[in-house]
User: Fold these one by one.
Assistant:
Number 1:
Amino acid sequence: MAIGIGGLIVGAGDGFWWLVIGAPAAYAGFWRAYYDRVKKIREEMPDHRVTVRVEPESITFQTSERTTTIKWSGIKAVWSYPDVLLLFTYDRQTYTAVPSAALGEELRRFIEDKVREHGKVVT
């Protein structure tokens, strides 16, 4: 971003410098909007506990306000980290984080195997 500002000061006239400044600024703006939306949702939830129920045909997330059930075919990818699984759903831009410690190794492998049937697992 400093390069883009420097280009504007020096007077380079092409749109490249606007791209160098605009792309990071747009990314930061989108990230901030996402962060603010998630923070607002969290603050509005009366109870922050989430119950995860893993079944042979689906996975269910339940809070005090809502229950969401997703068939395994709806989970397109899992990013597997030592302490968390990120489950990416239909549009691949929305994910749910599930702490691995709460799952145990056997259930973690079960989830990864179910997703592999219709999607991919990234480790």
Number 2:
Amino acid sequence: MANPSLSSLVPQFWGNNAAIYTWTALPASLAGPSVSGPGWTDRSVQVTGTFGVGATVTLQGSNDGTNWFTLHDPFANLLSFTAAGFAEVTEIALFMRPNVAGGDGTTSINVVLVCCNHQNN
């Protein structure tokens, strides 16, 4: 199986305040490569694409790069998607990644993570 694509290992920057990470065409039962950015204070995630039968996408965080946990939105809901969606991310983790569980041969998920800080320029 081909490795999923992370469009920008070096994030796309918008001024000095935001970075955009994009994973494209994530297949069934595979985690995307992780990104690191603990200095980003505000984060949102957008999930789109084709959800094959039984596909669930979670946004996961880890502080050691080995043990991964599903992150939450500001209302303590797990960031778990069975269809296209958009949410804020509460936790600040050293590493973040999308993870596709289940799905089938039609699964092709796109995830966009926007990270922003509010430091003075």
Number 3:
Amino acid sequence: MIQKARHLLIQWVRAFKEEILPLRMSAEERVYLGLIKQTDLFDANFYKTHHPQLFDLHLKFPERHYIRWGEAAGLFPSSRFSPSVYRRLNADLFPSDNSDLLARPLFNYLKAGQGQNRPCLEPAQEAQHQKVHVPDMIVTPKRFAVVVHVYYPELWPEIQQTIMRSGVDLDWFITITDQGEPASLVVKQIRAQLPSANVWLMPNHGRDIYPWLYLVNQGVLDPYQGVCKIHTKRSPHLHDGDKWRSQLFRDLLPLNKTHSLLEAFMNTAKAGVLTGFEHLRVGHRWWGYNTEKSMQLLSRLNMDVDINQLRFPSGSMYWIKAEVIEAMKALELTFDDFEEEVGATDGTMAHAFERIVGYLCAYVDMHIQVAYPDGPENF
């Protein structure tokens, strides 16, 4: 009885901290709330539909959630406004004092940017790109490669240091979300520091998944026995997004241990994907709002799927063998298969693809291997 009461108390405290406290508003925030309720740039149905995994209480008060938490995380209030894009494209309108309401993107737009017809979405992106190919400089490809997707340019130094400290001899392939000047600057930086790296600007489309599949489909990764897929994961909608990224980097590219980790993975014939021990998700509850799209993807391979056998590496970072890459290529996913970017935190094609990685391993008679601190294990 005491244990049950203690469990209930813990649940209540957690709910209070995670659901109720974030909805408490200051006087200034209440002013902001009044302004939001007068504009059609906040679409409550859109907000709830694109972020369905929010707590029930947050879904009942979406405007409050956006003000207290969602805007800072970059969540779209409607399909017509991106907080992060507006801030990046209109930095001159923002005050240096972050406590000023004008530091809030939507408030700033409604009070200043809208009257000046300032942009609040990414410029239209073209679906066509230059053909990606393995440059002539790679006459003899190495055994392994790393594919990095950079959405947050400020995280590039962390990724570069992590890869270089791993000590593994790799060919580098780097895709960068084309966000104007910040992206161009990091391209120049990479080409100066890593002249042999292969770098491409890509549209803000399909998160890290579309750029990865673009390289896969073009055959860029065909020469390699194993590839490390990582990206500048931040997940600002999660309180531990940065910790998640750092842990995955340590699991996949551990200092002084990557060689032994990778050899153990390669020497396990049936292991197709290697992920960190804290990031393997198993079981039906992890489908989220992605079951239907995931089944549509797997139907392209005529697979007989048991939805209760879900296993996937969360975070979409892993080592992967050539056989599973070929299974990904067989899906024949293109630009048009991915939705327009509207900041959704679940239910997109990218989220669906993340969840089918274990099934793609099974498709080629392989499984996921997990890297524990004391050595890898198969799952």
Number 4:
Amino acid sequence: MRYAETRQLLGTVLVGAYYTDLGLSSEKISGYFDRPWDWAKIVQHQKWIIQFSSIDDPLIPIEEARYVHEKLKADYHEFEDQGHFGRPTFPELVDALKPRLQSIE
């Protein structure tokens, strides 16, 4: 998301997105969360945003993902049983991404 604040992109796929340091010192020390997000620029700098989250994600609270969705108005896909999406295939991502890529041909 930080990259999209300053650069033009075709689009972004967010999986397990969050916007705070989650109270973790390892995240805080990264500096990634030290400044406010420029939500408007993130949206303006791309044609589309697809977002995936899961209620049972053990790392990212669903409130974080929902807040990101609220700010970005992403094409939002919320699951109940996908955890942190650590699986070998992700057909839902392909289904969501395919029409966007076909539109640029």
